[in-house]
Amino acid sequence: MQELTMPINVKNIIDLEKTALFLGISTATARNWVKYGYLRTYTNDKRYFFQLSEIENVKFDIENGNLEKLNGRANKLKVDRIFIPDEYLQDGVNIDDIIKIINFVTENNINISIALLLLSLNLLQKEKVISNITIQDLISQNFVFTNKQISEEIKAWLSEIKINNIKSDFAFLLNCVIPKQRDTLGFLYQSLLPEGKKSQKGAYYTPEIIVNEIIREYIKKDSKVFDPCCGTGQFLLAFADVVENPKNIYGVDIDGIAVKIARLNILIKYKNQNFVPNIVCKNTLFEIGNYDFFSLNDENIRDFDVIATNPPWGVHFSKSDIYWLKTYFPEIASLESFSYFLKKSIDLLRDDGVISFILPESILNVKTHKDIREIILQNTHIKKIFYLNRVFKKCFYICY
Ligand SMILES: C[S@@+](CC[C@H](N)C(=O)[O-])C[C@H]1O[C@@H](n2cnc3c(N)ncnc32)[C@H](O)[C@@H]1O
Questions:
Q1: What is the pLDDT of residues 47-61, one digit of tens each?
Q2: Which range of residues forms the domain containing residue 40?
Q3: Lower Cβ count inside 10 Å, N or C end of the chain?
């Protein structure tokens, strides 16, 4: 075990509990990893402390299979462990506040939809869309919103939850400190979603800094824009920084909770306007057509100015999905999820529109992806390929 004395810059130092949470392991395992020399500690009396950047590197190495001895252990634990997506954390956000929320939700075994509903109400109070609310007010639906559509969204959400499962003890989630960043609720959702579920859904959201860089050049105030797998709306919120009419912002995602959050995010962003967001919970690959946006009727109309996203990669499709994918997308043989999203987006784009996708480097030269490379070359002009090494190693975004 390597031990160092406590360095001066305590801001980047985390304790054993936070380190274990970051790595998705128990504190006992973290102690063992210290014992076997996998983690380097800084000691202060009898307690362990760790350098955040070193822990981030260890996490990166585990996730990328660079630490063979830890792979089995980490993979086993990954499935139901919760990770705070630190790459998504904005400057000035206090990680302790997030850990308190995660601990509260896990210790009280609170259903994730209920937790997110309460945290949404917490944010709405802070955004002054609703006055102070108690659990009792919520159960008896005794609340007044300044925005009619937001009120509809909350009522619809409540109707999907068993009211008896909302306990007065959960009041902490209505009033606790929540981090202030562009997609606060999405960040909390990502932090609460077990790793196994995230990887199953390909639900890793894109940090704000990358999103901004990708869309800055292409969005105009009257653009009609779309994220075909919008998650909680990282790209939609970036579109909203420029687009004047919220009805021109479209999003689809298969994850019902993510869609609820994305809709609230856009409603909060345009909180002085009354509109129903064009963001829906559907399977983009099978349920989104070209003519009427939400139908499958017509193949000919392409009308989005910009389609930008970080699509899911490497999704394991079910047998029936594979049957339908082969029927709808016969030209794609690879069964690679990002290829289907790319093909779908090319079909939905107007002739002079722009697509911007975050993709793995392998699309450029790996044989399996020949199918989508041909589709790209036959149907688009590549404007730019940009490596994202800083944040997503071995990934780039590509604009057509
Ligand atoms: C990598 S995340 C990106 C989310 C968001 N675009 C972003 O960049 O932050 C991929 C998203 O695709 C969604 N997804 C996976 N399969 C889908 C499908 N068939 N139809 C619609 N959304 C899907 C997941 O739920 C997840 O939110």
A1: 788 888 888 888 777
A2: 3-78
A3: N
